[in-house]
Amino acid sequence: MSVPTATDQRRLLEQALRQLKDARARLAAVERAEEPVAVVGAAVRAPGGVEDLDGLWRVLRSGTDTVTPWLDDPEGRRDGGGRRTGRWAGQLDRVDGFDAEFFGIDAAEADRMDPQQRLVLEAAWEAVEDAGLPAERLRDRPTGVFLGLYGGDYLTAQLSGQAAINAYTAPGGAHTIAANRLSYLLDLHGPSLAVDTACSSSLVALHLAVRSLRAGECDFALVGGVNVVLSEAAMSATEKVLPTASAGRCRTFDAAADGIVRAEGCGMLLLERRSDAHAAGRRVRSLVRGTAVNHNGRANGLTAPSPTAQAALLRRALADARADARDVLYVEAHGTGTRLGDPIETEALREVYGEGDRPCAIGAVKTNFGHQEAAAGIIGLLKTILVLEHGQVPPNLHLDRLNPEIDLGDSRLTIPTALSPLPGAERRLGAVSSFGFGGTNAHVVLEGPVTGAPRSQNEPAGPLRGRLLLPLSARSGPALGALAAVYARRLAGLDPRAAEELCAAAATSRDHHAVRLVAGADSATALARELAAVRTEFLRPRAAGPRVAFVFSGQGTQWTGMGGRLLDEEPVFRAEAEACDAVVRKLAGWSVLEELAKPEGAGRLHETEVAQVCIAVLQLGLAALWRSWGVEPHAVTGHSMGEIVAARVSGALDREEALDLLVTRARITEAHARGGAMTAIALSAEEVAGLVEKAGDRIGLAAVNGPRSTVVAGDPDQIALLESLVGPDAGTRRLPVQYAFHSPLLDGADRRLADGLRHLRPRGGGVPHYSTVTGDRVRADQLDHVHWGRNLRGTVLFGAAVQALARDGVTVFLEIGPHPVLLRDIGATLERAPGPRYTVTGSLRRDMSARECLDKALGELYEAGLSVRWEAVLPPPARHVPLPAYPWQRRRHWLPLERVSAATAPVGADDGAASVAAPPAAGRSPAELEAIVAAYILDRLSEALDTDSAAPVPADGPLTALGLSSLALVELKNRIERDFAVAVPLQALLEDGTPLALARTVAQALEPRDPHDDLRTGSDAS
Predict the structure, then answer these.
(1) How far apart are alpha carbons 702 and 796 in whole angstroms?
(2) Residue 60 contacts by C-beta under 8 Å, 6 or more apart in sequence?
(3) Residue 593: its pLDDT value, please?
(4) If you ran DSSP here, which 8-state letter would residue 541 be given?
C-alpha cells in the first residue's frame, strides 16, 4: 500500500476546494432562482388627477369613480372642447404636456413622440426617485427595462394621413422604442424590451423582469405599463371584439355587468433582488414572491377565458412563491365586468383561494378607472401594494347585486363594497391577475412591506449636526424654483432631527442637475424662509466638472481658537492635524493641537514662529476635509508661506518635508523680519515701484496681489514716508503686523534658508503647482532649495499666478486659510481675464462658525458645478425619507395635424410650443427689470446689515457708506451673479456705487438670449 505524497495531498485538497466552490455556486444559483424580488420604487398616472401613490390611495380609499364622457379631439386636448361621441372612458387629465427639456429632447422630436413614451419617461424617473436612488446609480449596474403596451393611436394618426410622416414618426411610435428610449436616456445596459400581450402586457413584463433578476441578467429592473386612448377608430375596433358597458361603467361582479370601459394610465416600478435591497438598507414597498404566465390554449374561442387555465396559472404562481393559498388575504382580480368573464374568474379564484380560516377579499380597480388595458395589470398591482401597506381593502364600486352566476358560498372569499380591514397576520400576502384578450394570462403573488428595520435603523440616533444644509437642483430655473417652494412647505413644522433627515436625503438620494442652489440655516423655519426668498428664474445650467484651484493664504490670517471647533467636529481634519502635530512636536517641541484650540489671550499666534506653522497645519487639515467631501484640486498655488502647503498638497513634498521647511522658515523669519512694517496700496506694481525708489532702499515690493493691489514691506520709517507720497486717489492700508515679510530686512536670510535645504528632493506631484515665486506653473523638480530661498525674500507674484491658472482653464478658486484675505484680489484679477465666469470663495472666517463658513463655501462650489460627495457631508438617514418628486415643466407637444390648425397654442400656465423656455427677461421693460433687481439688492443688503423695514437701506446712497466690509461686498457680488447669471464688475460695488446704479448695471446685462448659448460655447452663466 503506497503512502500519499505531499503532491498527492495537495492535489486532493485542491480538488476538494474546487468541488466546494462549485457546490456553493450551485446553491447560490438555486437560492437566487427562488429569491423574492423587492419593489423599491413606484410611480403612477391614473384618471382622477392621480399623479402619485398617495393620490392613488385617496381615490381608491374614498371609492371615487373617475370615468367621464370620452370626447374626440384629434388635438389631444382635455379641456372639454372635443366632439361628443356618447362613449365613456377613464382619462388622464392631460396627455399633450411633456418636459422635453429635462430629457434633452428636441421640440420637433417631442411632438412626434407617442404620449405613452412621454408618460413612461416621467413615471420611470419618479419610480427611481421614490426608491431614494439617484438615477445615475443605475448606470453602474446592469439595469433592465420591461414595458407593457399595445395601443398605437398616435402612430396611426400619422400613418392615416392626419399628420405628415417624418424621421421622428417611426421611433416616436414604435413600441420597442418606448423601452429602448428609456434605456438610452438613462444609459442603462440591461435587457430592454416591450411586451404586447394586450391586457396582460404589464404583468407579463413584470414576470420577465423577475426572471431576469433571478437569472442575474440585471441587478435593477424598471417595469411598467402604459395606455392612452386617442382614436375613435380604435374605440370602434375594440367595441367590435369586446363587450363594452352600455352604462359606461365597469360593474365588476355585478348582475348588471355587461362590458368594459376603456381607460388610460401608466405605472412604473423599480425592482431589485431582496438580498441586494436589504444589503443597501433600502425601503421595500413590497416583495414579488412569485409569478406565472400561461395561455388558454384552444379554449372556447380565441378571446374567451378558460377557467382551467386560470386555476392552473394561480397554482403555478403560488408554487413559484413557495406560498400557501390560505395565507393570501387579498386578490386583485382582472375583473373586466363582463357576464362571461366575471363568473369564470371567480370560480378559478374560489377553486384555488377559497379554502382557509381567514377571509380573503377580492377587488377590481377597473370599477374606479375602467379597463386600462396594457397598464391594467401594473395599476392593479400598485393597488395591491397599497392594500397590503395600509391593511385596508377599498370598496368595489357599482356592485348593487351579485352576479347570480357567482357563488362564493362555503368559501372565505368576500367582495367588499365599503372600506374594510385586512385580517391580522404575521405576514400579508396578496395576489394580482391580468388576462389578455388573446389568451395570455399572468398572476403575481406579493408580500406586504417587510417589518424588519433596514440596515442601521435600530442603531441609536447620532448627535444632531446643528445646522441645516439643503442642496437642490433641477434642469431649469423654473423647475428649481418650484422645487424650492415644495421643500419650503415640507420643512414647515419639522422638528430638528426630521429636518436634518430631509436635508440629508435630498443630498444623498437625488440626482444633481445642472441648475443648482444650496440653502442653509439654523432651523427648519429659517431654512423654509430662505427657500421662499430665492430667485431662480435667471439661473442657467452650470457646466459639470469645473477645474478647481486650491489657494493657500499666507501669514496674517490667523486668529485665536481658529481650529478648536474643527478639531471637535470634523474627524478628517483632526486626523491630519494629529499627524502634523506629531511631526511638529519632534521638530519644534510644542503642540500645534494645543495652539489651535487655545482661547483668546492664551496662545502664541502673535509669534511668526508659531503662527506660520499653525496656519499651515490648519490649511492641511482643511485640504484633507475638502478632499473627503469630493472637492479635488486640479491645481494649487500659495501666497508666501502658503506655497509650502501647496507643495505638500500637490504631492511634491511629503508631510515631514513640508513641516520641516515651515518650521525652519518660520524661525528665520522671526529672527530677521521682526520690527518691520507693511502697507497695502491700491495702485499697480509699476506705479508703486516708482514711489518705492523715492522712499528709500530699506523697503521693497513684498507682493503684487492684483491689478491695483500692491504690498510694500520694510523699514517702518520708510514705509511711513512712502504712504505720505501716495496720492489722495489711491488708498493705503497699514497691515496689523510687526514684521516686514519679503523685504530687504530678509537680505541674506534667503541664502541661509536655501543652504539648509540642499537635502530637499521634491518629487513629481499629481497636482499642477502654480508658484507665486515665478507667477506661473512650475515642475516639481523646480521646487528645490533655491526656490524656497526666493520664496522667503522675493516678491510674491500672486496676481500673475492667478492669471496663469485662469489661462490654463481653472474657473473655481477656493481660498484655504483661517480667514479669506485674497478673494477681492482674485476677483479683480479675473475681471481682466478672458473666458467663462469664475467662482471665488473662501473656507473659514474669524467672525463666523466653522460649520456655517464651510457650508456656505461648499454651497458655492456645488452651485458652480462641482460633484460633491454628499454622503461624507450629510450622512444618509437610517430610515427612508419621502422627498418631493421632480416638478415637471411641461409644455404642449402634439402632432401638427393636416386637417386641423397647428396645435401650438398654450394650454394652461405651463404650456408652450417649444421645449426651451423664453428668456426670463423677455417681455419685460428695462424699468421693470431694474425694479426687480433693485428690490432684490435692497433685500440682500438688509439681510447683510440685519436691518428691519423701519430703517430701510437708502437706494441712492453709496454702498461703501453702509459700513459693509469688502468681504461682504464680494459676497453680495457673488450672490447677484449666481441668482441673475450675469457678471458684476467689482468696481460697481466699491467705487461709490449705489444700489440703484448697481441694479441698472445688472438689468442692462439681462438681455434676452438663447438659454443654450452657454452650453454650446462651453461657458456658464450662473
Answers:
(1) 6
(2) 365, 368, 383, 386, 394
(3) 95
(4) P
